[in-house]
Amino acid sequence: MKNSIFYRPKIEILTIFLCLISFSAFSQNTMPTSQGSDFWRNVRFGGGLGLGFANGVFSATVAPSAIYDFNSQFAAGVSLNYTYFNDDDFFKSTIVGGSFIGLFNPLPEIQLSSEFEYLHVSRNFEDPIFEDDNYWQPAVFFGVGYTTNNITVGVRYNVLHDDDKSIYADALVPFFRVYF
Prior knowledge:
There is one protein chain. This protein is mostly beta strands. It has one domain (9-179): Porin. The chain has one helix spanning 9-21, and strands spanning 23-28, 43-54, 57-69, 74-87, 91-107, 110-125, 133-148, 151-158, 172-179. Strands 1-2-3-4-5-6-7-8-9 form a nine-stranded mixed beta barrel. The longest helix is centred in the N-terminal third of the chain and has 13 residues, at 9-21.
């Protein structure tokens, strides 16, 4: 993508900035169950929010999620994702999809993660010279983070990164998670 007319350095910088301030928050669900099951006691709900403004570029993301804690070391869950991106001079994009995530804490301070994300990307260009496009983009991330109290900070790597189609500027994506 860097060799094409579609490459925009400010888009790449904005994407990296949004990844750095990406916020995932999970809260414990305390809803009682009529069956006496421990299932709902082990489910955490939350999600991620992202918002960015820069030089005619606007981006907003909403990503609700749910995680089930199997025990103190293993958790797994699902997430939905909706992103709207608008570069006034170039194109508008809508991204919709979801992901499955697995978390493993070999030590209380270390969090390893794997995530499969599948997103539908729709790009509509302002200039009729460029052809609008719609496509599905898979991503497989492997990550590592440092956890202290309720905060996990780390980095994840997309093994399927494609410079021409990926919505991420780079295969290496930092993350920040807060658990309540």
